[in-house]
């Protein structure tokens, strides 16, 4: 009977269902006794009728239970995007160099891109007539790209925009639930703050799609959602979503069309364990226990559906469901992209066993610092090899990231594993995600793979490669017009389109010659790659050789040296081969430059022990790092590897035995040969300055200047200056009020505090030692400037002598608001190159092009303010030691983005001499000797590689090749 009533052809046709059900009910009723009639009407009891009222729907659901998610088959015939905004004009981007993302990222075409109805309507040669359009009649905006690079929008596979909002405010922290290791039922969309400053900034970096993940404090943190960061008329989180799962806002689901991909956040290793005072073993058990619950539900569903589809309704009851396990059941059905935060071999192994035990595929392992060491293990994942989503250089902040290698993207790509660079915003600020791909490219990832790593590969991993990640007819109109090749340092969008809508009304562009269309020619790192694998991520980092002998460096393009606190040019821009052969020669002996030019160096002919062709390279002063805890720590999050925080007089009881007025000196906590320091040295950062660690308190102590290459503190040149400056921090959100912090500073500067603290502040008062204040807010900086004037005036009335209180601000994200006042007060600043509104105190930023005409640093310089550069990290001093090695790229970035306003010499100065002078080291001879030799380019680009460092004071050259 069942077979005839519900043949295949009928089910699923909703229009016929009521009729069929009616027929069914009537025919059953006719033969029913009174007794069974009563039973039939009893809710939930279908025995009497045998077939439940919604049988067809249930069967449709059962049939669709394992349908693979994906677009409907006719998707590519669409002529209008589901995200199209009425009134958007057509856009004709003409004469572009188009990287399409196709053919494994190898296809580049010359021509046009036509955007219409929110989708890409045509590429290459655009024929308006064939589209039934005309320039005179239709509203078409044209953009002449003048040959510039155009790519699909950037896709950020790992972002916390909206759930870990900026500026940081307690009221908008919706990233980690504290309700247990398993909270798979939570959804990031439910906490999405549409006022996060990150959205607009991300689009300014070319980001057009982001996966918003819950945090990693839970073993299963909840469902993640794909959004586009453009503003919508509706202003709702829902309106940002890209292909949200059916059923998100309705309980009616059409089971006859394929579902959409869903995303689930998993985490292994330290984070969930740390958060729940548990162990890795607990986390894996929590996962297994949860999946076992889901498996029971799934099996019940499958058994139910076997019966329902066979029409065996007797005693079946309702479709078995549990809202709580619904996401995990979908995982087991292979319909969820499992995005797993997982760092090291142990954790991959555990998770891959989990995937095999419960039979579900894994979309990507995120962070995955050790993935490059275990490619064969990754390939054992159930359902196929996951993608690896990682950082370029952000690493070593915790144990499980200690074996990171910047060559990992290359190694994984060579092993055939999909490579994705991701932000973990606000870890790496999403706006600068492309910079991660640029670094990966510098360290060996091929051009096509590097571009794909932030565009097409994440689109594939999201299961959205039918509409994003490629420039192709029918795809979403998300495209970026770049000012130069996207893998070049400083690449900036000239315009960004999302759903065909230009994101910037009047973008500020950096004029650039179209010649910058080639990717940088990156160095050869093959030896380093081999060593990274051979030594399981901990290869020796010291120089290959240290020699006092005579070495001839030839074929140089630039030579700059340091004299005092200035950088001087010996020669620059030797572009022709003959010029370089004649002038681009430098002889070195005992670590000292002894001749410049081929002619001069001829005299040393017989002494020369080796000749190094620098292939257009350079000699430049060693850079100075300030702004992280480099020198005081190895693994930031491992207490036993760091010097640790000082006791703050405002918030701690200082032990009597230490003396209430003790001051801490960083020199006493120095560590040498840390991996961060050695990597920094290999990147041309020859010295560092670090104050004692002050975790959110007021008084830090006395900084030290140290060598990044010395073997230990007692080695030659290890401590360059034992006391540099006195450091304090002032900011909102501390345990005591800002005004209390200022009151303490006033008292200290009055000169009547005793002990060591009093002693050092007396030095500050007399202008003998520089006071460095960590401060972000313009309001607090203004208060400090008046306090400076107040103290100077007081001293003048008391002594009739003018003493200048020497003050430097570090952080100073809002410094531009006080530019004039800072210049008047002769207060310089130590700043990060790319300001970001992490906190309320730093919320007013100069974001730079395309949002503002000038970038922050070149603006400050143009205002006559002395600027020193701190490396761009994650905005937390005690976590940023890894970033020290990137100072060269940060300085180079300023040079590029300033469009010539900041010369190469100035760029070198803000990363070396200016740092010394802003910290009060203005005498000559302080580390003036270290010079860095680069091959293929200089420190300020993605082409130069450090091959030697001249240590004049020590009398030798360190060679790295
Ligand atoms: C495209 O732009 C380049 C660079 O400005 C220019 O040389 C070329 O002539 C342009 N081609 C067309 C077809 O406009
Ligand atoms: C619910 O989702 C559908 C499909 O994504 C969408 O069209 C609709 O606007 C959404 N409704 C609300 C209230 O957000
Ligand atoms: C000098 O450098 C260039 C690359 O800039 C390279 O092509 C050339 O082979 C190098 N050597 C000589 C002797 O020109």
TrEMBL record:
The chain crosses the membrane at residues 20-40. Gene3D superfamilies: Metal-dependent hydrolases (3.20.20.140). GO terms for biological process: purine nucleobase catabolic process. It comes from the Eukaryota. This is Carbohydrate esterase family 9 protein. InterPro entries: Amidohydro-rel (IPR006680), DHOase/Allantoinase_Hydrolase (IPR050138), Metal-dep_hydrolase_composite (IPR011059), Metal_Hydrolase (IPR032466). It comes from Thelephora terrestris. Keywords: Membrane, Transmembrane, Transmembrane helix. GO terms for cellular component: cytoplasm. The keyword Cytoplasm does not apply. GO terms for molecular function: allantoinase activity. Residues 408-493 form the Amidohydrolase-related domain.
């Amino acid at each position: 009977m069942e077979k005839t009533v519900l043949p295949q052809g009928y089910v699923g046709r909703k229009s016929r269902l009521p009729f069929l059900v009616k027929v069914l009910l009537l025919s059953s009723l006719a033969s029913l006794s009174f007794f069974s009639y009563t039973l039939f009407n009893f809710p939930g009891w279908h025995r009497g009728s045998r077939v439940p009222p919604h049988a067809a729907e249930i069967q449709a659901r059962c049939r669709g239970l394992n349908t693979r998610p994906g677009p409907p088959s006719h998707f590519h015939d669409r002529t209008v995007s589901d995200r199209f905004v009425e009134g958007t004009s057509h856009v004709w981007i003409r004469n572009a160099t188009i990287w399409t993302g196709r053919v494994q990222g190898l296809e580049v075409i010359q021509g046009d891109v036509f955007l219409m109805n929110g989708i890409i309507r045509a590429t290459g040669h655009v024929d308006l007539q064939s589209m039934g359009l005309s320039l005179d009649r239709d509203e078409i905006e044209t953009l002449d790209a003048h040959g510039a690079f155009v790519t699909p929008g950037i896709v950020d596979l790992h972002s916390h925009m909206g759930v870990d909002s900026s500026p940081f405010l307690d009221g908008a922290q919706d990233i980690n639930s504290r309700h247990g290791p398993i909270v798979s039922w939570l959804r990031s969309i439910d906490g999405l703050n549409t006022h996060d400053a990150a959205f607009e900034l991300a689009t300014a970096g070319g980001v057009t799609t982001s996966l918003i993940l819950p945090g990693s404090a839970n073993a299963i943190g909840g469902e993640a959602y794909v959004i586009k960061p453009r503003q919508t008329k509706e202003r709702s989180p829902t309106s940002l979503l890209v292909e949200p799962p059916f059923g998100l806002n309705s309980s009616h689901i059409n089971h006859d069309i394929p579902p959409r991909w869903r995303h689930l956040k998993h985490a292994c290793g330290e984070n969930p364990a740390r958060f729940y005072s548990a162990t890795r073993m607990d986390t894996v058990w929590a996962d297994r226990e949860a999946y076992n619950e889901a498996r029971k539900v799934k099996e019940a569903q499958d058994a139910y559906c076997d019966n329902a589809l066979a029409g065996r309704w007797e005693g079946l009851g309702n479709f078995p469901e549990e809202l709580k396990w619904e996401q995990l059941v979908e995982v087991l059905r292979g319909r969820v992209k499992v995005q797993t935060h997982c760092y090291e071999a142990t954790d991959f192994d555990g998770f891959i066993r989990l995937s095999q035990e419960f039979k579900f595929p894994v979309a990507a392992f995120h962070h995955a610092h050790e993935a490059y060491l275990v490619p064969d293990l990754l390939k054992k994942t159930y359902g196929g090899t996951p993608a690896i989503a990682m950082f370029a250089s952000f690493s070593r902040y915790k144990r499980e990231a200690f074996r990171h290698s910047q060559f990992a993207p290359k190694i994984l790509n060579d092993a055939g594993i999909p490579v994705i660079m991701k932000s973990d915003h606000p870890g790496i600020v999403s706006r600068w995600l492309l910079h991660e791909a640029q670094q990966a490219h510098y360290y060996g990832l091929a051009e096509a793979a590097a571009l794909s790593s932030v565009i097409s590969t994440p689109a594939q991993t999201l299961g959205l490669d039918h509409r994003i990640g490629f420039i192709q007819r029918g795809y979403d109109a998300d495209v970026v017009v770049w000012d130069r090749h996207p893998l070049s340092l400083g690449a900036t969008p000239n315009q960004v389109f999302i759903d065909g809508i230009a994101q910037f009304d009047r973008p500020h562009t950096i004029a650039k010659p179209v010649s910058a269309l080639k990717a940088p020619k990156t160095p050869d790192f093959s030896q380093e790659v081999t060593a990274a694998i051979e030594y399981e991520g901990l290869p020796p980092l010291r120089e290959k050789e240290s020699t006092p002998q005579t070495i001839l460096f030839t074929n140089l393009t630039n030579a700059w040296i340091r004299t005092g606190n200035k950088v001087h040019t010996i020669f620059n821009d030797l572009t022709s081969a003959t010029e370089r052969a004649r002038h681009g020669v430098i002889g070195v002996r005992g670590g000292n430059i002894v001749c410049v030019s081929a002619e001069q160096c001829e005299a040393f002919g017989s002494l020369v022990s080796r000749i190094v062709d620098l292939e257009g390279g350079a000699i430049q002063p060693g850079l100075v790092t300030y702004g992280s805890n480099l020198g005081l720590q190895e693994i930031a999050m491992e207490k036993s590897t760091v010097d640790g925080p000082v006791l703050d007089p405002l918030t701690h009881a200082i032990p009597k035995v230490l003396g209430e007025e003790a001051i801490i000196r960083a020199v006493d906590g120095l560590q040498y040969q840390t991996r961060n320091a050695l990597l920094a040295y290999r990147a041309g950062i020859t010295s560092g300055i670090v104050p004692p660690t002050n975790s959110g308190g007021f008084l830090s102590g006395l900084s030290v200047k140290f060598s990044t290459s010395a073997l230990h503190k007692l080695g030659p040149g290890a401590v360059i200056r034992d006391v540099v400056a006195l450091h304090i921090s002032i900011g909102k959100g501390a345990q005591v009020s800002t005004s209390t912090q200022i009151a303490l500073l006033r008292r200290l500067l009055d000169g009547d505090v005793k002990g060591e603290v009093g002693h050092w502040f007396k030095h500050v008062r007399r202008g003998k030692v520089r006071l460095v204040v960590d401060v972000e807010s313009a309001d607090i900086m203004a208060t400090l400037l008046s306090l400076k004037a107040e103290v100077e005036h007081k001293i003048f009335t008391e002594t009739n002598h003018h003493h200048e209180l020497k003050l430097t601000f570090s952080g100073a994200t809002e410094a531009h608001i006080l530019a004039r006042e800072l210049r008047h007060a002769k207060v310089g600043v130590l700043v990060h190159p790319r300001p970001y509104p992490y906190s309320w105190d730093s919320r007013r930023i100069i974001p730079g092009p395309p949002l503002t005409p000038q970038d922050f640093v070149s603006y400050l310089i143009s205002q006559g303010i002395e600027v020193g550069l701190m490396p761009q990290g994650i905005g937390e001093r005690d976590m940023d030691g890894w970033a020290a090695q990137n100072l060269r790229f940060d300085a180079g970035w300023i040079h590029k983005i300033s469009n010539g306003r900041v010369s190469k010499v100035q760029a070198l100065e803000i990363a070396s001499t200016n740092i010394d002078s802003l910290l009060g080291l203005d005498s000559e001879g302080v580390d003036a000797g270290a010079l860095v030799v680069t091959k293929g380019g200089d420190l300020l680009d993605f082409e130069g590689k450090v091959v030697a460092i001249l240590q004049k004071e020590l009398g030798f050259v360190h060679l790295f090749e």
